[in-house]
Amino acid sequence: MGLCLSRKEGPLYQEYKACLPPMQGKVVAITGCTSGTGLVLARTLAQAGAEVIMLNRSSKRADDALKDVQALTSQVTFIECDLMSFASVRKAATELNQRLASKGLDVLCNNAGVSTQPDQATVDGYDPQMQTNHLSHFLLTQKVWPLLLKAADLRGESRVVNHSSGYRHAHKQPFHIKYYGKNGGQLGGDDESFMETITVHPPGLERYCHSKLANLIFTYALDDRIRQKGLKVKALCANPGFTATRLIANSERLSSWSDFMARLAQSEEDGTLGILRCSCDPSAQSGDFFSPPGGALATPAGRELGGMAEQEMQERHGLLASEPRQSEPVLGGALVSWNTFWVVVFPLLVAGVVVPWLLGHRIISEVVVGLIVLYLMIEGIILVCFPRAFQLWALQRPWNFLVRLLLPPIEILDSIGAGGTDLSMFTYRQWGENLCASGQVWLGSHAVVSKALTSPQARNNWLGEHPLYRGALPEGDTGRCVFLLSLSGKAAGGTGDHEAFRKCMIDTLFNDASMRRETDELSQSYLEQAAEDFVKMTAYNFYHASDGGNTTFWIKYLHHVIFGMDVRNPQEVTSLYSFLFGSMALTHYLEPFGRLPCISQHKTIDEVADLYEKSPAFANFKVKPEYNNMTARELAVLMTAIMRIAGIQGSRMLMWLCTSGDKHGNLQTDIRPIWDSLNLDDDDELERFVLEVSRLSPPVTISHRIAQEDFSCEIKGKSYNFPKGTNVAIPIVYANIDEAAWGPDVWEFNHNRPGLKEKQVSFNSVNGVGDRECPGKGLVLRSMIRLLRVIGKKRRQQSAAQNV
Q1: CA of 356: how far to CAs of 44, 205, 359, 369, in Å?
Q2: What fold does the segment set 450-803 form as a domain?
Q3: What 3 state SS string does 314-342 have?
Q4: pTM of the model as a whole
Q5: How large is the average pLDDT for residues 428-447?
Q6: Residue ranges of domains in the chain
Q7: Per-residue pLDDT tens over the stretch 593-604
Q8: What is the CATH architecture assignment of 11-18+26-320?
């Protein structure tokens, strides 16, 4: 903790400065460096040869500090950054990412700090001390993380340096989520005097203590993640000790004490030793905590580290509340979260049965058991007898207590089969194109679906009709969700991540190089092998076996075309097949199944992501602002989900529907005779064949969006109203059989149908229009044309030979 301005160099600082390691070629960004330890650090590292970026609020002191450092080096830049404004922090991070995209950031020193601030709210609603000292630094670290990874790749390591305080020990109350929340102005009031501060531990000091404890916890939590992922970034922390800086010198209540206390404090130069060593000492290790004299301390024990993971989750929760949010339902939801249910409600129910029984109050146990059984019976009756009618009633009144109590289990259980083509068509015949199922309002006319697919969409964590477990969704080294299907479009309230990440994926993986691989020698050999397997294997084995046939072809072929991989290494084959074949990996993403340790696939996903990140397609990957600084790891993890949920699953299903002759969904014709009659050298005719198959039995039956305004629709001849935030299903399967769009022969197979290409919605777009069109649409269609040609010719040769 610092008090007032002093510029006298201490002996400890002089001694370390004399043996300072060279910093030429390194880039250091420092917050709060208009004076005090921040300015000392900036001057010192500038003299050592580093490029220094000073992140300060615009002021005369900032100008003076910039001139001070400019007198030592020309490699110094000022970027405005007001830590009491998240918007300012994001703007500064954007400028950093643009300036340093090619060379990265070697050291981010989160130095700035304030103390004894009034109990009021920042523009973002937070306590000024917590936002300035911790939350804004947390946000800044998150936003420039790709730059730290870039520098680590180029020069072997990078560092995040945080500032804590001896006052981290002094908090009277256990750390509470309220300090992270938007509770500025409601955290105990102001400190009246310095004497009050040192005698009765007022609320202002309590807030300061918690902000400094938060920085240390953040450092250790970040270090844990770094070690788990094997990254070359170091997370370090320092305590400046009792130092003569401007930290509280500007406080009117304390100004009379500043000069006196300065006589007792160490110089600001000696107080800088901790962050100086964190920033450049070669012996510093990730997780080190440097003491006021500049030495590394042992990891603190006790309450500081107790429940550290939970603390880190709390700080992330507080920070993300300030981030631009994805459009999530603003509706009631469950009465309690899944975590609360298992941690609180379930143990209470068990205790409510067991404890009274043991104490001889059996009637209480029987009442509790009876209530549980009654609840389960009601849920069962709803699910079996009138699930659609109940959900129609419930979705109109999401804040109703009974809805919040009864609907969540219904929507999960109903979602398990609701989107299957056969069951969805059974429901269609009962209710028509509009209905309520899986906790969603389904609007199925071709006109409504087309509008939804070609308009900006707000999203949440759902996969069509299935709720997803957020903890299972792909996120990279920055901790942000990169799952495209959960990200809202920017025009629908999103952050722009969807557009940026999608562009990154297409530019990196669905480019000219991948298109050339579609027709190279290895791809041709995969096509020929698939044709051989088709005529030699039994139909069941070809479509369902894990060795050879349909699945093997798509795994090898798509990984070669998209990633440039040659899947022959036994270890690679094992990792890919265990993840991409079967239903277990798909269940990993679904709520609540993904919460079960026996279903979790995180280890396998990391192995597959490693393969993707090392593939030829990633060889020249670059972090770019236009991709919202998406990292290679984030793209690799995203692609594990894309390949499992859509790439392999959808492709092999389309292959089965086009070539097996099986009847499925609305495809109730054996289409093999039609395939046999096609001109196999006519790409257009083959493409129409594939499109008509996907119309009658689309591999993806349902998408989803979040309603951005109140709306009404007609269900069974009656109009109903639903509120903004309602989860709306986009049933592609219904749009594909709308007679108003396709004509009276909608149920018949006709690959020469007028408007087949123009009105096609099976690839999540309409005639190629829509920013959520399947990015692999072109690849899959071209591949299916080649497969139908190669296999079709082999099939005709076999048929001719048998007829001789």
Answers
A1: 69, 46, 5, 12
A2: Cytochrome p450 (1.10.630)
A3: HHHHHHHCCCCCCCCCCCCCCCCCHHHHH
A4: 0.69
A5: 96
A6: 11-18+26-320, 450-803
A7: 888 888 888 888
A8: 3-Layer(aba) Sandwich (3.40)
